[in-house]
Amino acid sequence: MILDEIMKRKSGRAFTNKPITDEMLNSILEAGRWAPSCGNTQAWNFVVLRDANALEKAHEVLSKGNAWGKSAPVIILVTAKEDDGCPAHGLPYFAMDVGLAVQNMLLQAVHLGLMGHPTAGWNEDGLKEVTGIPDEYRIVTVVFFGYEGDFDNLDERTQENEKKPRTRKELSEIVHWNVW
Ligand SMILES: Cc1cc2nc3c(=O)[nH]c(=O)nc-3n(C[C@H](O)[C@H](O)[C@H](O)COP(=O)(O)O)c2cc1C
Q1: For the CA of 119, the nearest atom of ligand 1
Q2: Could you tell which of 94, 102, 119, 155 is best to mutate to test the pocket of ligand 1, judged by most ligand atoms within 8 Å of the CB?
Q3: pLDDT 10s digit of each residue in the chain, 180 long?
Q4: From ligand 1's centre to the CA of 179, what distance in Å?
Q5: I need a labelling partner for 6 at 20 to 30 A (CA). Which of 53, 117, 153, 169 fits?
């Protein structure tokens, strides 16, 4: 049941710095590449940070609340041009396409026994500067990947966040059968 792996995925914050093999990382990127996209526009670009120097520079522009991400051995910046997606309905489909690619990557990580955590807490200009991402691209999300580590190594505030139960709205609140 793929649902088991979907349910197992979680945005955990306790990472170890144990490296991820090239094979694993390539399979995560491959999972992203094969996501569907509106009109097959494939608006995504993935900037993979895994060298110590590149990771260190990125760590400096993370928000304080996402400092837990510094333990992750791989960070993937998911970028897109806002006008590179499909123009249907005037909707920002590039963001949906990127989201589908990210979920594919997160699920492949779960399948490999890894954890992935997407975030929005960082300084976009700062990250662009340290990675050379061109001005016309937006960083849609920054995803941390690695093995799950020890909860006790997290700071107090992050431990509190980690203890919060993972919740979802009931299907009865969000599903409309035949009519709204
Ligand atoms: C676009 C996006 C941005 C997020 N930004 C952050 C973030 O900056 N920091 C953080 O700790 N979690 C972040 N999250 C994780 C969410 O808090 C998490 O997905 C949500 O609480 C549901 O928990 P779950 O992923 O464990 O099911 C983000 C998730 C998404 C999809």
Answers
A1: 5
A2: 119
A3: 899 999 999 999 999 999 999 999 999 999 999 999 999 999 999 999 999 999 999 999 999 999 999 999 999 999 999 999 998 999 999 999 999 999 999 999 999 999 999 999 999 999 999 999 999 999 999 999 999 999 999 999 999 999 999 999 999 999 999 999
A4: 31
A5: 153
Q: Which amino acid is at 55?
A: L
Question: Could you tell me where the DSSP H helices lie in the chain?
Answer: 2-8, 22-33, 52-59, 93-111, 124-131, 156-163, 171-174
Roughly what angle, to the nearest 10 degrees, separates helices 124-131 and 52-59? 160
Distance in angstroms between the alpha carbons of the first and the last residue of the chain = 30
Q: How far is the CA of 10 from the centre of ligand 1 (A)?
A: 9
Pocket of ligand 1 (CB under 6 A): 10-11, 66, 118-121, 141, 166
CATH code of the domain occupying 11-162 = 3.40.109.10
Report the interhelical angle of 93-111 vs 22-33 (nearest 10°). Answer: 150
